[in-house]
Amino acid sequence: MKSISKKISSIFLLVLVLATTGCIQDKFDQPPVNGSDPNMQATHSIADIKAMYAGSSFEVTDDVILKGVINADDKTGNFYKVITFQDSTAGIAMRVDGNSLYATYPVGRRIFVKLKGLYIGEYNGMIQIGGAKTAGSNTEVEAIPSSILENYVVKGSLNNPVNPIVISIDQLNNSHQNMLIRLDSVEIAASDTALTYANYVTQTSSNINVKDCNSNSAVMRNSGYADFASQKLPDGRGSITAIYSVFGSTKQLLIRNTNDVQLNGPRCGTAPIQGTLITIKELRNLFTGSNTAVPAGKKIRGVIISDYMAQNIVAQNLIIQDQTGGIAVRFGSNYAHSFAMNSEVEISLDGTTLTKFQELLQLQYIEPTAVSVIGVGSITPRQATIQQVSDSINSWESTLVEIAQATITNASGTYNGNANANDGTATMVLFTRAAATFASSPIPAGQVNFKAVVSRYNSTKQLQLRNLNDVQ
Amino acid sequence: MKKLHLILLSIFLGFSLNSLAQNGQINGKTYDVFSNKPLKDIKVMLIPIGITAETDEEGNFTLNDVPYGKYTIQYSGEEMITVTRSVQVNDPIVNIGNVPMSMVTGDLQTISDDVVPSVTGNDDGESASDNNISGILSASRDVYLNVASYTFGQARFNLRGYRSDNFQVMINGITMNELENNNVYWSNWGGLNDMFRYRDNSYGLEANNFTIGEVGGASNTDATAYSQRKQFRASYALSNRSYTHRLMATYSTGVLKNGWAFSASASYRVANKSYMPGTFYDSWAYFLAASKKIGEKNFLHLTVFGVPTRRGKTAPAVQEMLDLADDNYYNPVWGYQEGKIRNSRVFKSHQPTFILSHVYNIDKTSSLNTAIGFQFGETSNSALNWYNAPNPNPDYYRNLPSNQADSGLAAQMYELYSQIEAARQINWAKLYEVNALSQDTIYDADGIVGNTVTGKRSRYVVEERVQRSKDFTFNTYYNKIFKKVVEFSAGLNYRYSQSRNFKRINDLLGGDYFVDLNQFAELAFQDNVSNQNNIETPNRIVREGDEYGYNFLYTHHKAGAWAQAKVNFKKVEFFGAAGINFVSYWRTGLWKTGLFPDNSKGKSEVFNFINPTVKGGVTYKINGRNYIFANASYMTRAPYIFNVFLSPNTRNQTASNVVNEQITSTELGYTYNSPRVKIKAVGYFTQFLNGTETKRYWHDQYNSNVNQTMTNIDRQYYGGEFGVEGNIYKGFGMNAVMGIGQGKYIDRPNLTLTSDNTSEILLENETVYFKNFYTATGPQWANSLGVFYNSPKYWFVRLNANWYDWIFVEANPIRRTGSAVEGLEQGSELYDLIVDQERLPGQFTLDLFGGYSWRLNNTFKNMKGGSKYINFTLSISNLTNNTKFRTNGFEQLRFDFTDRNPNKFAPKYFYNYGINAFLNITFRM
Q1: A169: closest CA of chain B, how far (Å)
Q2: Which residue on chain B is closest to A28 by alpha carbon?
Q3: Which of A23, A98, A144 sits opposite B390 (nearest CB)?
Q4: Cα torsion at B136, B141, B143, B146 (round to 10°)?
Q5: Among B811, B921, B924, B827, which Cα is nearest to B869's?
Q6: What distance lies between CA B894 and its chain's CA centroid?
Q7: Contact A33 B433 (CB under 8 A)
Q8: Best B248, B433, B435, B513 residue to mutate vs chain A (most A CBs within 10 Å)
Q9: What is the pLDDT of residue A92?
Q10: Residue B879 DSSP label
Q11: Residue of B211, B213, B185 lying closest to B475 (CA atoms)
């Protein structure tokens, strides 16, 4: 019996030994994912190419290369089978026959388009890049099949900022086609405020009338396939960020998502925020050391320096700054606000309280209706060393600073949690919430310049980035 | 009449008078038909009573203590074709004479098991009936079946046009057909060829003594340690078929003095690239068996085996893609990842099987075989899945040049696809890139309010569609010979199986997580409930190894009983058999889906079926060599659960008309067997009525998987099987074989189309104008002409020339409905293009097969132990490298109702391999 079991086990051993020499590889290497720019240069600006269009579609026969940054994508479904991109001169749309293009071509990606062999045409006044002439049309062009798109498009770096051109409706003209623009102090026409963005049940598109307080109007066109189609339109006044488009002579706005629509303030013609204007420094000075009710009949005005979209701040809070100082502001009842960074707002102080939250001075429980967007502003950050920030934290709290030539380090290599910033003068915590969109982004090696909001958490003095654009 | 009665009476009386227990002795001898030399070590067994003996150096054997009666005597030996003879023992000494045997012309079973590539439909369920039954009846004694199962099997010829669910396959008495679809998964014992040699086959309606069987036949393999000769074998095979290398080793003790017998076998099959591009093979196999003889009458056997396997699959493609690739073996399911080939469709399986069996030889005329079997394990098929991202399949129809209206753009696409291999394959790097860019935040993740998960949300994943099952079987059958004329058999069986079906994340492709949402429901409903695959844990975050998508059980019970009596007179044999099966099954949903909260979770309706079988036949023996037989059967079969539940992934809804299928079959045949010439001619006529069949595929227009259920399917198969083989002169011989038949729909089925994502019925009981359409069962006319030479110097060679014809493409039923051709003029070009069934051209192939057995003892006289051999076999199929041979094909199940362009969703085809070879070297002692 013993020899039998020996023989049997040796059979298994034999096959095992022989077989392991021929084993198949199981785990595959993960390909690198590089979002870096290729070594290419633009030969023409987008405006140059658009200028070549003279009313009938044509094939580009020269080695023309355009360079631009994608300013809208099809993530929400409001854009369909198109990639729009812009450079400093103009924007243009490229028709592509494919779905979910944003998977590879998201907003912020730089692309290089080799136009040779492609066609330039027009659709109701909109200049477009296509793959072929549309049969039977002198002006229109066909979509480029997605399978051959990479013959023409070279992908570059990611997350490049696209800043909207702030403009008014009456100033919009064809040079703004396919560029990201922002209209401030506009609202949905009263006839449309009860509607949803579009009709998702029948999946039909809607034209929503948008006007400013001077009765200039434009159309916000929303697709019935957009994932926000069933949402109700906001009825306040504020800003709309959109890709500018035309349909014949109609001025059209195509939003990327509902974050582009910030209509929170009082409508045109309604009374502005009442009260006596005080500075933020005056407001801060009202604090007595314990919870302090702010006297009625006062308001502050400033620019929002926090970025709710990047989520490095709780959804209920914003930070506002004027020439005299800054302060953290908190909305009541878990209200997740959507007041955009750089909006200039007025806030009524009626019924509010000054309090300390983990030693940070905070103005609390603001009603959404107590905030009115009155325009767009900007705050120039204070150039400072970390040592200076540390020394002046009491007066600089909740204001924007810019630190030069600092090194940021964190054990994890990402921003998440308490990183350390050192500019040679001192070290300070650079805090990033786990929920921040950039929490898992890698920290660049070497020295950087960065902007941050001065903050504190109990006794810890700290800096807080708003978004990744703050790091240069 | 009166006279006849008297004769019958006297026959019975005569037998009963002679029925006093008397024992006799059988003597006999065997020799090699080619060398004319006696054969030693041939195992001779008397069926059913199990008395055995082995032949000596002179080829002689003796079986003692044989009760008077009629038996089948079976000769089997290593590398030899098993031979059976009938013997009547009614004298003290019966001499059966000198029986010729011939070498198995190579490892037929090995080759036919491995020749058919494993194929996947492009979408689930959307593939031709590609289950092949070729392995079942190979190495048979039947001249027709030998060629049909091996040679024709490669060309996807189906015996009688039947699908594999019409053949019952048993191992040690345990049925291996799955309860869910009656199919047999050969891969569960693939690579263990050494241990699965001893098979008892009955083809068609032929009677056997172990089961009542299916309409196509039944086989029972004896894989007990007791039946394996004492031997050691080691073999190496080299091939360019499914695998490149095979290593196999086997050791059997034979029956030891203490009554024990042991067997062990193991093998490894591997290929980095098999015949089809992008496929690999990685399969282990193990086998352990022990037998113990307890007293004189009882045998206990335990057999355990399993085949852990991973292999890369292939999917058929439209002809346009094959032309772009300039390769009829183009395979769309792989791509390069960092320079290495990666297959997206990987089949994984490991289902260990345990069989404990007991043979009780009650007395000299009766025996009882009882077995319990247990099988469990997991099989899975991987595939790409994607969420809000472009379809990654390189052969996606919208990306093909034919779908491009502009000729300039089409030309650019043509150039890209035809010039750049990577464009025709999966772009793995792109999938990783998309996932890397996909930063996303999920709120209220896992249904926990305030739980926020941020990171790279994979939009492409490799998923596994898993079936985890357990299957328990009890089977017993009893054999008794009454009065030496009546062979009585009866059996009872019970089976239980439960399988859990779910999807699992295999690879996040660089992402951090995936969310278990139904994106197609998201397209239709803009809420956060409908899109939940499991509303009890909404927004569930899944990572590698996590289950997602769907999760449900199929539970089956099946109990059966049967009995058969076979009466053997000198000139005539009759048999009659009857059986009944009780089948019960249901679905149990484990998750409540957002779309169907009311009927997705919990137990479905329970379906119960009663299925009788009756079968009978007569054989008339003109003389010892000429037989005429006629058999007939009627049975009903419960519809398979897969076909009854319309959308099992999402809910409990079932087809409205759940009925048994009725199967009637008759066959009439003639055989002639002499040592030099064998002839077989059989005609058959079979009808399958009231069948139900469900196929599932992805439908763009509805943005959903849809389920196409056909009911009232009436099919008919009739045809002839002819074979003749003769030894012409001193080892030279010829054979000619033809299988000719017609498989057709004989009525108009009804078609119901449902969607996974709505309860709305998309089409209901639409009439399918399928009358006289052909079933797609590979070539319906197959012919082979062969010459062979068997040398007395222990080598052989055989050459077969084959012609296949009457190959029909599986028709898409939707194209044959009124709505598909509404408004078209009957007989117009477009009408015909939509409706007519495509027939593929007939094809020629040539196969060469040879072998040599080298007996080492003559060369190395000093070696210890018994005889040692090295055997070489070489099989070269398709010698002329015919790469244009489409063995079958199917129309895609979508139809372009807008433009009615039947080529928008063009048919997909399977091509026969070009020249391919299998070389095997075996050492045995």
Answers
A1: 32
A2: B337
A3: A98
A4: 30
A5: B924
A6: 27
A7: yes
A8: B433
A9: 96
A10: T
A11: B211
Distance from CA of A127 to the nearest CA of B (A): 20
CA nearest to B739, candidates B773, B770, B687, B777: B777
Complex confidence, ipTM: 0.76
Answer yes or no: are the C-beta atoms of B486 and B567 closer than 8 Å: yes
Closest CA to A241 of A264, A270, A225, A261: A261
Taking the CA atoms of residue A121, residue A122, residue A123 and residue A125 in that order, the dihedral angle to the nearest 10 degrees is: 180
**A24, A31, A35: residue with CB nearest B282:** A24
Residues 6+ apart with CB under 8 A from A400: A305, A321, A326, A379, A381, A382, A451, A452, A453, A454
Cβ atoms of residues B754 and B646 within 8 Å: yes
Q: Tell me how many degrees the CA angle B762-B767-B772 measures, rounded to the nearest 5.
A: 135
Q: How far is A148 from chain B (nearest CA, A)?
A: 6
CB atoms within 10 A of CB B98: 13
For B241, the enclosing helix (H) or strand (E) is none
Element (H, E) at A119: strand A119-123
Residue B137 one-letter amino acid: L
Distances (CA, A) of B696 to B97, B128, B171, B367, B646: 59, 12, 32, 47, 9
pTM of the predicted protein model? 0.79
**A434 neighbourhood in chain B, CB within 8 Å:** 454
Instruction: Give dist(CA B792, CA B31) in Å, integer.
Output: 12
Kindly report the three-state secondary structure assignment for every residue of B288-313.
Answer: EEEEEEECCCEEEEEEEEECCEEEEC
CB B161 within 8 A of CB B719: yes
Token pair in block for residue A212:
């400013």
Of B310, B389, B432, the CB nearest to A100: B389
Cα–Cα distance between B404 and B406 in angstroms, integer?
A: 6
To 5 degrees, how large is the angle CA B113–CA B118–CA B121?
145
- CA B510 to chain A, closest CA, distance in angstroms equals 7
A112, A156 Cβ separation under 8 angstroms: yes
pLDDT digits (tens, 9 = 90+) for B620-667: 988 878 889 999 999 999 999 988 998 899 999 888 888 999 999 999
AA letter at A179: M
Euclidean distance between CA atoms A337 and A308, whole angstroms: 8
Place of tokens 């860019």: B437
Is residue A371 a contact partner of residue A264, using CB atoms and an 8 Å limit? yes
What residue of A is the nearest CA neighbor of B258?
A1
Gap from A15 CA to chain B (nearest CA, Å): 6
Averages of pLDDT over runs of 10 residues in chain A (472 residues) are 68 64 60 76 95 94 96 94 95 94 93 96 93 93 93 91 92 94 91 88 89 90 92 90 92 94 82 85 92 91 90 92 94 82 88 91 88 80 93 92 93 90 92 90 89 92 92 87
Give me the residue from B265, B390, B522 closest to A146, CB to CB: B390
Tokens of B307: 């085949």
CA-to-CA distance for A341 and A448, rounded, in angstroms? 22
Query: How many CB atoms neighbour CB A54 within 10 A?
Result: 7
- For B344, counting Cβ atoms within 10 Å of its Cβ (0-12 exposed, 13-18 middle, 19+ buried), the class is buried
Q: With beta carbons under 8 A apart, name residues in chain B contacting A22.
A: 245, 268, 270
Nearest to B378 by CA among B333, B347, B344: B347
Contact indicator for B27, B91 with CB cutoff of 8 Å = no
CA nearest neighbour of B693 among B751, B742, B609, B647: B751
The answer to whether B713 and B660 have CB atoms below 8 angstroms apart is: no
C-alpha B717/C-alpha B746 separation (Å) is 10
